Amino acid sequence: MSSVAFKEWAIICETLGAGGQSVILRKGGIHEGRDGFSFQHPAFYLFPTLFHEQIARTSLPASTPIPAGTPGEIGIRQYAEVEWTATITELETALALQPFHVWNEEVVRGRFQYDEAPGIHLAFLRVYRCEPAWSFPDAPRYGGCRSWVTIPDAPADIRFSPVLTNEQHSLRCAALKAALKP
Hints:
Helices cover about 20% and strands about 35% of the residues. It is built from 4 helices and 7 strands. The longest helix is centred in the last third of the chain and has 15 residues, at about 165-180. Strands 1, 2, 3, 4, 5, 6 and 7 form a 7-stranded mixed β-sheet that branches. The N and C termini lie far apart (about 45 Å). The mean pLDDT is about 90.
């Protein structure tokens, strides 16, 4: 038995789990294949990574602690459902999304302009806390520059609590859609 997980910076996972943002922005990993990246799964666990992670690459205060895990283990604390996706093809639009995520402008510009096809993918998520959080041993199969990994199934007693109320979630969705309109 296994589940799908999306690899994301640990600080982004924590921000999503705290209700600080409801979007994931992604250009794609090196191992995404010929067709490139897509949000190919409608729901997934968030797999926190420390690879490439730097608080300096976010808009968070420099004093923000980088979430620390247990060495040799992967801790799963969030689950997400994709409500809708968009491909952002205008840099001005990508930069205007700053109120909805914690990447700094340099990261957004860099990801947007990376490779021969400018643009960035966005997923609007409904995020849940996993209760209890759970973990499993780290392994080489989880490494590399890929967005999606297969992980062991969650414990049978796991529950999911939404990080935002229905009203908060709806308001954020409406604000994001308004920001995406030309």
